[in-house]
Amino acid sequence: MSIYMSRAELEEISEGLITAYANKFSNRVIQSIDIEHFITEFLMLRIEYASFAEDDAGRIGFLADGATPLLVHQDGKIIPFVFPKDTIVLDKFLLAEKEQGRRRFTMAHEASHHILSKMYAMPSEGRFHAEYDSERSCSKEELA
Fold first, then answer.
1. What count of Cα atoms within 13 Å lies in the side-chain half-sphere of residue 96?
2. Which of 2, 126, 131, 138 is buried most deeply by CB count within 10 Å?
3. Terminal Cα-to-Cα distance of the chain (whole angstroms)
4. How many Å apart are CA 108 and CA 63, to the nearest integer?
5. Are 90 and 23 in contact (CB under 8 A)?
6. Per-residue DSSP letter, 129
7. What DSSP string describes 20-54?
8. Residue 49: count of CB within 10 angstroms of its CB
């Protein structure tokens, strides 16, 4: 995404979405945001888990566009699989209890791609969440 947004702009968008969510689900006691409920019931996105087989082990989340394949392990093989549009796909290892924080962050990160593409009427395209690795060097294409 080539649009720059300031921290203040992102916070304003976030606050507006959380307020709308709290108003829509006022029957729920909201002390902290249930990110899965926010994504599935408010944003109307699906969440699925798969065993990623991408070359970049840092890729742990994916927002599917219904056209871009994700390499996954299935039946002992690596296959390109196209998930339905508006599906957040997370690597299965994130289901471990000790990965709860990383799972929630990755879900929110992928949801933000969906939100920002809607705000700026950008076409859907498959997007990855990759963990930052300070020792990895990236090509210009990867950085783009």
1. 6
2. 126
3. 9
4. 11
5. no
6. E
7. HHHHHTTTS--SS--HHHIIIIIS--EEEEE-B--
8. 14
Question: What are the beta bridge partners of residue 70?
Answer: 81
Tokens coding 61? 């989340």
Q: How would you classify the pairing of strands 46-50 and 77-81?
A: unpaired
8 A C-beta contact, residue 56 and residue 72: no
pLDDT of the chain along its 144 residues, tens only? 456 788 899 899 999 998 899 889 887 766 778 999 999 999 999 999 999 999 888 899 999 999 999 999 999 999 999 999 999 999 999 999 999 999 999 999 999 989 988 887 766 566 565 555 555 555 656 544
Q: Name residues whose C-beta falls within 8 Å of residue 32's C-beta, 6 or more positions apart in sequence.
A: none
Domain ranges for the chain, please list them. 7-130
